[in-house]
Amino acid sequence: MVCELCGKDITFCKKVVIEGVPLEVCTECAKFGIEAEKRRTEEPGPKPVVKQRLERREKRFTPRDVYAEAGTEELVDDYASRVRNARSRKGITQKELAMKLNEKQTIISKVESGSMRPDEKLIRKLQKELGIILKERSAGEVTAQSTATTSGPLTLADLIKAKKD
Ligand SMILES: [Zn+2]
Fold this sequence. Notes:
Blueprint: E1 14-18, E2 21-25, H1 27-30, E3 34-35, H2 48-61, H3 66-70, E4 73-75, H4 79-90, H5 94-101, H6 105-113, H7 120-130, E5 135-137, H8 156-159
Antiparallel strand pairs: 1-2, 1-3, 4-5
Helix pairs in contact: 5-6
The chain binds zinc ion.
Zinc ion (ZN) binds near residues 5, 6, 26 and 29.
């Protein structure tokens, strides 16, 4: 088995309480904790090394965030109205927009009516020309939510919002 604090392979483990966390650790790490059985009321102040090791432990025990990495950007559902509204805000016709994008007017018309999903290239051109966002990060179910993850700019829950029907 593995020491829960330093990650060393050990054959014999000690059950201790470190910073209020019950752990099974090697004899060396056990020095930093209080043996579960003999838990004192007065706990020693946190030692920097313990903090460090606990942080490392947290990282080891955090499931790999595969969903966040796999998160793909998808065309938004209301792309048609976004394009239409942005174009009318600019005060240009479908034909003018088509010319700017080097596309046919029928293409723009179809996109704006929602009967044609713009391809990757057209999405980029529309976004750039109209200054709008047509792709958003989509996601599946939250299955690997880690309670250990308390910080960071984005959590799985933020990245993954099921859009399934
Ligand atoms: Zn250890």
